Every structure is written in structure tokens, then in C-alpha cells.
Amino acid sequence: MKKEQLQTILDGLDDRFLAEAAACGEPSASARRLPRAGRTISRLKTAAACLLLAAVMVLAAAGAEAAEYAAAHTFFEENGLATDGLSRADIREVYRDITTRTFGSDKTAAVLTRAVPGLALAQEAPSPEMLASLWDQRVFARTPAGAGYAYSMRCTEKKDPSTGVEVTDTSTVECRLDGTLLWTAAFPDVFTEGAVHAGDATFVWGRVPQIGSDYGHSAWLACVDDAGQTRWSRVLLHGYGQESIAAVLEKEEGAVAVISRGNLRFLTLTLFDASGRQTYWHQTEIGNLGVWGAARLGDGYLVHVGTWQQKETATLLKLDADGVPQETLSYEADDGDYYLTDMASFGGRIFLSAWFVPKTDRTGSRADIQPVLDQVFLEDRLDIPDEELTLLVRDNYTAVLLVCDEDGGVPQTFYSAEGSLGGRLAVAGDGTLLWDVENISSTFLSLATDSFTVGGVSTVYRYTFDASGTLLSRTETGETVPFRR
After folding, report:
1. pLDDT in tens, the chain (485 residues)
2. pTM as predicted
3. Other beta carbons less than 10 A from residue 190's beta carbon
4. Mutual angle of helices 106-115 and 88-99, in 10-degree steps
5. Rounded CA Rg of the chain
6. What are the pLDDT digits (tens) for 35-51?
7. Long-range contacts of 267-270 (CB under 8 A, 24+ apart)
8. CA trace torsion 22, 23, 29, 35 (10° rounding)
9. Looking only at Cα atoms, what is the longest distance across the chain?
10. 3 state SS for the chain
């Protein structure tokens, strides 16, 4: 029965029938004094009212369920929790379990532990107290970026019927502009890894499995318009067993340049025109170096390469227009190490976002946090209060923005912010440059995880520069990002 039909019928009923319905069919005293025929009519009307009331209660329950699900789904998004594999009822259950601080549901345990990459738990299930601690620390919390184009991605898996192995089912990408959702698009059989807005479209990239290979994958690229419709998608077929895209850069007339890494040893440049046709490809062997990002540099390119194992974290390759390396730039200091995070070509200069830490002989993915860990472990301070740990961590990190000339890549000036990490760089629609600085707000020691030892949350501050490189403003965005080292 449609809602408007039900309402029309209810409006036509006498109020006393609704009162009788509340008694679930119990006849009133006056009804018992009526002749048999009158009692039959009264009972029919009362039964009809009971049915209508039951329908109203069903609709009300459905509405309450829908409202709670909407609130729960928003709660998951705002707190960086994945809904993959969860039904509507599961999502509502986890939502209630967290907001009431019960932390007794197995589904809550699965959601929270999955939200912390590399969480190494004991064989027994995590206790409600441990789950509450994880939740309170919010090490996975990431609020959506509030300025410019921002993207969130989630991937679901399925079991391959021929092998029984879990494989990618569908990736879903959401695009927001200044915090407002513009579109949502789904890509079957693709594991999406990144996205950027260039020209009048978004370029989404990721990887797809190679047919007949258990481990091989090819790079994949799609062009999506601002309504969320896919203009074209391509699989990059360059003969590699593995290829991964590091950056997509805007060129003229809708064309894009793709910087990728092939077979863990080749740096490649691929050009696509506005229709998605590949027009150029070039590879350069660089050895086992990571390819982490890129920016336009005049007619050429500047590519961030390196390896954490050898602590090469601030090395750039200058490529000409054909993708041929011309020069290597390395940023270092006598008293510390730089870790580059992003770069942008703006106003005839190159801007490099980074963080700076005191120099150490250690290498590997924890080299930058090692001075803090040494102080904690050598002094046997595994019970160090979070507030004191946060002061140690903040003293170790400084966000740095290097402003370099476009020809030689030599720093001309720099900006710094203590107790912070350098974050993303973006050119805003009004022609200004935005630099996000991740101010370390809170930390905690996490011995139960193998992917990080110090976790926490950073608050994002945004610095705005004009085309001459002059600092215009500094604002607190209200956004947060995880801190995991």
C-alpha cells in the first residue's frame, strides 16, 4: 500500500476507530450493547483500523531503520571505517555498538581491527577494552578534505570460482568538491589506487590482474567527467609483468602524461590524447627504485624516486619532454634528513613539500621515528604517557616547503612549521597555491601493531601562497589525518 493511499484512508476514519485499534480489537462497552449486526459492523471497522495501525507501525519501523542506517553510513564515512562485506543490519549494529561504547560485537572488532593496517592481535579475540582504546585513539580517522577536489575509494572482493582465491570485485570512487559530493562511480574488476582532477575531468588509475597470471597486473587508467560518467578507460599494455601508475599530469588540449613503474625497474612515460588514444611511450631503466610522484617542469617532468631501505627519500629525476632523464637532484642537510611528500610547479617555481628530522644512521621505513623510539626503549619507558610521547614526537618533526627555481631545482627559500609533517600541494581555482601542513596533535605507543609503532592524529592547517610565492594566509581546516610511523 502506498503511503499517500494509506494516509487518505486514515484521514477518512472516525477517531473512535483509531482509539479502538489501540485496544487491538477489544470491543467498547457501548459496542457490547449493540445488536448482533451492529456488533459485526463495529468489529469489521475495528479490525480494519487494527490492520491500518499495523501498517502504520510497519512503515514507521521501516522509516526508523532507514534513518538509523543513513546515520550509521555517515558515521562510517566520517570516521574512515570500511563497509565492505557488511549488510545494512551489520552497519547499524556496529554503529550502535560504538556509539553506546559497548564494543561487544564481533562485527565491531572486525571493522576496527581492519581499519588499522597491520594490526597484529593475540590469538584470542580483542577485548571490549582494547576496542574502546583503539576507537578513542582514532588512529584510522581521516576527515574528507574540505577544499578542492578530493577522492575516497573502497574496494570489495570476491572469490575466484576457478582458484578459490579472493580477487577484486568492484572499486567504488567518490568525488567531492569543497566537501560536497559530486559523483560516485563503480569500476568492476579494478583495484583503484589514485585520482586527480585535470582540465574538465577526473583521471582515476589503478591496476587489473593479467589473464593467466597469479601475481601479474597491468596498469589501468580512466577518464571520468564531472557528472561521474566514464569517457574512456584503458589498460596499459607495455609487456610488463607488473606496472603501477605513480602520477597523471595534465597537458595541453585534454591530453595527459602518465608516469609509471614497470617490473620494479623501469620508469615509463606514456602520453594519451583527449580521446584516450596512446600517442607516445618511453621507458628508462632506473633499477629497484620506487616511483612516488611527479610534476610538470616546463616541457619536461620532475619525478620523485627513491628507496626507504637506503634512505633515499629526497631524490628527484629531471626528464625532458620525451621522458629521457637529464639530471638527478638530491636534497640533504648536514644535521638532518628530508622526506619529500608532494611537489607542484607553480608561478615559474617548483614547490616541494617535505618533513625534516634529525640525522640518524638508521635506514628503513621507521628511520625517521627512530630517535623517539630509541629514547622510549632505551630508557624502558613503555608506559610513557601519551601527552609526553606527543611532545617527543613533535620535537622530532618539522614540516618544510622548499621553493626552488624551475631551471636548476635549487632551493631559493623555504617555509617551516615545527611539530608537523608536510602534506599535499594543490593549485586552487583562484590561482593560489595551497600547502597542507599536518600538525601532530596526539600520539600513543602501539606495541600491538606491526605496521606502525607510534600512532596518532594530526590536524591539517592550510597555507595559501600567491603566484609570486608570498604567503597570504594560514587557516585551520578542521580536517584530520592519521599519524602512523
Report:
1. 322 332 333 334 344 433 433 334 333 333 333 334 344 445 545 555 555 555 555 555 566 777 788 888 878 876 767 777 788 888 889 888 888 878 888 888 777 766 654 443 333 455 677 667 666 655 555 555 666 788 888 888 888 777 777 778 899 999 988 878 999 999 999 999 999 998 889 999 999 988 766 678 999 999 999 999 999 999 999 999 999 999 999 998 889 999 999 999 999 999 999 999 999 999 999 998 899 999 888 889 999 998 877 778 888 899 999 999 998 888 888 888 999 999 888 888 889 999 999 988 877 778 898 889 988 888 788 888 888 999 999 999 999 998 888 776 778 888 989 999 999 898 877 889 999 999 998 888 877 666 778 888 888 899 999 888 888 998 888 788 888 88
2. 0.70
3. 23
4. 80
5. 29
6. 343 444 455 455 555 55
7. 267/291, 267/303, 267/305, 267/317, 267/323, 267/325, 268/238, 268/243, 268/323, 269/301, 269/319, 269/322, 269/323, 270/236, 270/238
8. 90
9. 105
10. CCHHHHHHHHHCCCHHHHHHHHCCCCCCHHHHCCCHHHHHHHHHHHHHHHHHHHHHHHHHHHHHHHHHHHHHHHHHHHCCCCCCCCCHHHHHHHHHHHHCCCCCCHHHHHHHHHHCCCECCCCCCCCHHHHHHHHHHCCCCCCCCCCCEEEEEEEEEEECCCCCCEEEEEEEEEEEECCEEEEEEEEECCEEEEEEEECCEEEEEEEEECCCCCCCEEEEEEEEECCCCEEEEEEECCCCCEEEEEEEEECHHHCEEEEEEECCCEEEEEEECCCCCEEEEEEEECCCCEEEEEEEECCEEEEEEEECCCCEEEEEEEECCCCCEEEEEECCCCCEEEEEEEEEEECCEEEEEEEEEECCCCCCCCCCCHHHHHHHHHCCCCCCCHHHHHHHHHHHCEEEEEEEECCCCCEEEEEEEECEEEEEEEECCCCCEEEEEEEEEEEEECCCECCCCEEEEEEEEEEEECCCCCEEEEEEEEEEEEEEC
User: Grid coordinates in use for 118?
Assistant: 597491520
